[in-house]
Every structure is written in structure tokens, then in C-alpha cells.
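Exam prep: given the inputs below (a chain plus CO-5-methoxybenzimidazolylcobamide), describe the expected output before reading on.
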Amino acid sequence: MDQNVPPLEVINAFASVLREMGDKYERGELYIVELIAAGEGCRKAIMDIVEPKLKLLGVERKTLGKIVLGTVEGDIHDIGKNIVAAMLSTAGFEVVDLGRDVPIKKFVEAVKEHDPQLVGLSALMTISMINQGEVIKALEREGLLKGVKVVIGGAPTSQQWAEKIGADAYAPDAIEAVAVCKSLVGRG
Ligand code: B1M
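Solution:
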């Protein structure tokens, strides 16, 4: 940034670094802590340094779409969700990260407030994954599923589970989550 490299080029550089690190992690060449540190570091750098500069320059960053994302109620695991958030953000999605242990009501309120194209639900425990289905039911009850696609993930979840609870898609990892989200918004 100090050398006046255009901010969008900086963001693309982060994205390619994260993609490369993700590939290395999948090949067993990196530890998970390194991937986590990279994901968090890139996300923070983009949010704290690059995006304010973009605003100063008056450059509108075209996003691929908006996703409301969180770890469902009863579950405090957020390392995987944070990696997914960082990868989606560097891939060009606007991520509204609700955090972890997110009450069902909060997902409903966030969809009403932010009008996203996607909702992402992470769960790491067999008891909490049930709440992925409860969020979908709540969104359906409120008539909020028109125009909104739901993607789920987390270690105990699967494609079969996604189908069972009426989610639109399942992603086994952060790299796949980016591909799946792109395809859900017609940019795959
Ligand atoms: Co806990 N924990 N933990 N834990 N923990 C697990 C999940 C567990 C499998 C350990 C075990 O028993 N073997 C077990 C769950 C058992 C089950 O239900 N089947 C468990 C338990 C029981 C618990 C507690 C209840 C323990 C206790 O207090 N008695 C408690 C939870 C309390 C609660 O939530 N209410 C607890 C607490 C914790 C810590 C706080 C110590 C810590 C979490 C720290 C944090 O997240 N901030 C922790 C950790 C670290 C783990 C393990 C060791 C690692 C999880 C992790 O971060 N993996 C885990 C055991 C294990 O997995 N070996 C375990 C790395 C991460 C990058 O992977 O989260 O799978 P993952 O995310 C991946 C994919 O799943 C996917 O992409 C990510 C990146 O590639 N993905 C998505 C995730 N979300 C996605 C969303 C998407 C798409 C893809 O779309 C929206």
C-alpha cells in the first residue's frame, strides 16, 4: 500500500496467498494454526488497511454478493467459521459475521436487516448441528427464504444432512465453501 499498489491488486494478492496456503494445508504441508493465522491476518489487513483506503479513493469494491454467516446457537467453535469468513471475504463476498453461539432469532433479524443472497451456518457438534435446521425453519416461517440460499458446513455435517434439513448446499471446507457460494450466486 505504501508503494501505491492499487488496493484491488492488494486484495487479489491476499486471495491468491490464502488459496495457496489452503492447498498446502490440504496436502499436509502446513499446520492448521498457520492457516488460521494467515486467514485472520489477511482478513484484518483487508478490513483495517485496504478497505479504508478504498473508501478514501472512492472506489466501490464490487462484491459477488452478501452472506450472513455464523456458528449456530449452542456452539462456541469458530476457528473453521473464521477461515470460511476470511476466504469468502478475500474472494469478494461481503461477509456479515454474526460470530459464534448465535441465537436463531439473531439470524432471522440479520437476514431482515442485511438482505443477503446467502446465509452460512457452521456447526461443530452433533448436538448443535440440529440448530442449522432450526434456523432454516425459522427463516421459512418468516418468509425469508425467497431469494436467499443457505449453505452449511462443519465437521459433523454432510451433503445428506444438508438435504435432510433443506439447506441449498454443503461445503466440507473453506475452499469448497467459496466455490459453492460462487455457484449459488451464479458466479461459479
Ligand atoms: Co471442541 N469439540 N468442544 N473445542 N473441539 C470438538 C468439535 C470435538 C469433535 C472434540 C472431540 O470430542 N473429539 C467435540 C464435538 C463432539 C461432537 O459433538 N461430535 C467437541 C466438544 C464436545 C467440545 C465441548 C463441548 C467440550 C466441553 O466443554 N466438554 C466444548 C464446546 C462447548 C460449546 O460449544 N457449547 C468444546 C470447546 C472447544 C474449545 C473452546 C476448547 C476449542 C474451540 C475454540 C474455538 O473454536 N474458538 C475446541 C476445539 C479447538 C475443538 C477441536 C479440537 C478442533 C475444532 C477446529 O477448530 N478444527 C475439535 C476436535 C477435532 O475436530 N479434532 C473439537 C479446525 C477447523 C479449521 O476445522 O471447524 O471443521 P472445522 O472447519 C472446517 C470445515 O468444517 C469447514 O471449513 C473449515 C475450514 O476448512 N466449515 C465450513 C466449518 N464451518 C463451515 C461453514 C460452511 C462451510 C464450511 O458454510 C457456512
